[in-house]
Amino acid sequence: MNRLAPVGRFVLGALISLSLPPYGLWALSPVCLGIYLKFSRHESFRRQLVNTFTLWLGYFTVGLTWMTDLTIPGWLVATPVQAVIMAVPMALVPCVGRGRSCAIPSALVIGESIRWVVPFGGVPMSSLAMGPIDTYLVDVVKVGGPLLLIGAIGLVAIMVESALLKRFRTILGSLVAVGILVGVAQLAPGARSEEVITASVVQAGGDLGTRAATSDQVAVLDRHLAAIEANPIDTDLMVWSESSVTTFAPLEQSRELSILGELATNLDAVIVANFSEIDGDNFRNASVSIDPGVGLIDRYDKVHLVPFGEYIPLRGLIENFVDLSLISREALPGSGPGIIKSRLGPIGNVISFEVYFPERVRSGIQSGARIITNPTLASSYTNSLVPEQSLASARLRAIESDRWVLQASTTGYSAIVAPDGRVVARSDLKQQTVLTSQVQLRTGDTWATRFGKLPVSILAAMLLGGSVLGVSRRRYLG
Fold first, then answer.
1. Are 377 and 401 in contact (CB under 8 A)?
2. Model confidence over 6-54: pLDDT tens digits?
3. Which of 22, 100, 301, 349 is the most interior residue, by most CB within 10 Å?
């Protein structure tokens, strides 16, 4: 039979999710996609939609399990919603014809690009692009960002399908296409080093599975200070984690800012810290830069907030069904590029969830950022799923921007990532430590930071649309 049973499609989707961190079985992504494609060819759009929905339902059922630490109802709702977003473009893929080879990677690109935007501003976690982070394929993100990498995964999936069907010309064509993409990535322009400095990342340490609403926020500040005292360093730039300081608005007048100013002067180092600034029933998630001998220089308020984490969409409706006491305050979004000024020049800053969005890093690069800082907080989660995905995203942002990335997490993982995606230093979960390394301040654009995601998205839409129109035309003429 030329059909996979629904349970088989669901299992294939679940296996694809094992290509994600922390599992790292990246080859399962193109292999399982290829198997699905071979056994799920139907001319009926409705049948294709059901098939692809079942595949992606399996993928997100496993891939989004980290959400259960925050909200089980949210996981139950998000899983089918994300599956539908990925399923609709794939249901448009022609079952036969030359256009199929272009339509498959295009459908993957379109599905991922949509779910990075909707619903509620997008949830790009558990993205296919995280899988091949340690392969040669990853270099293509310098050319077209993670969407081009997802397209490359689709090309490899075509090779798998064609191998099962013994269509060797299609295998060769896809192999040549992948080779060209990887080759172009090696020749594509990048950034250049302007200055070498010493940079440090502070991890306060502590238990996993804790919530800000029920935690001692003063203790978080104290643990950061204790980590520095236990690990004396000579550094030029020090990055603290997300919500390393909690204070009432305005933070500019807080005692905690004075403590950080004194510390920056004693260390003779620029400090990038992150404040949870309480303002009545709201709060702001703000990163600040503090120069030695001067104090506060600049602040950046988080723009891309976490739905159901920092704010509740449709709160008035949802609170009738779910206990929202752990998210009692709503975060207020900032605006503008992810950048803060300092004596070291412009420093890119993406806070926590924002590291999953290439355009937030790109906004800082376009404003002159020579290095990227990423204060984050994963202590709400009970396992390594989110820390591993956050680190993978930091590595993708490093490669596509050709910048060093300093990721500081309260309980881990914290890391110093080189422009080629190598993890130069990494903490353990729950560990109290300070990571230090020589890093470069770099300037210049890659094609990914110069042009963003729009060219790849438009190309994918044109290729998928063209293949669909081609099939419709043949049916009309036939």
1. no
2. 899 999 999 999 999 999 899 999 999 999 999 887 778 889 999 999 9
3. 349
Domains identified in the chain and CATH numbers: 6-189+453-477 (no CATH), 192-445 (3.60.110.10)
- Distance in angstroms (rounded) separating the CA atoms of residues 357 and 359: 5
Question: Cβ(203)–Cβ(313) under 8 Å?
Answer: no
Q: 227-231 — which CB contacts under 8 Å span 24+ positions?
A: 227/202, 227/203, 227/432, 227/433, 227/434, 228/202, 228/263, 228/434, 230/432, 231/433, 231/434
Q: Is the dihedral of CA 210, 252, 351, 336 positive or negative?
A: positive
The alpha carbon dihedral of 446, 451, 457, 461 has a sign of negative
Give the rounded distance of the alpha carbon of 435 from its chain centre.
22
Residue 216 β-bridge partners: none
Contact predicate 274/251, CB 8 Å:
no
pLDDT in tens, 175-215: 999 999 999 999 999 999 999 999 999 999 998 877 655 55
Cβ atoms of 156 and 113 closer than 8 Å: no
If one counts every other C-beta atom within 10 angstroms of the C-beta of residue 321, the result is: 8
User: Which whole-number Å values give the CA distances from 351 to 9, 36, 96, 235, 440, in the listed order?
Assistant: 36, 37, 45, 22, 21
Of the chain, the end-to-end C-alpha distance in Å amounts to 27
Contacts of 242 (CB under 8 A, 6+ apart): 274, 285, 351, 352, 375, 376, 377, 408, 409, 410
Radius of gyration of the chain (CA): 23
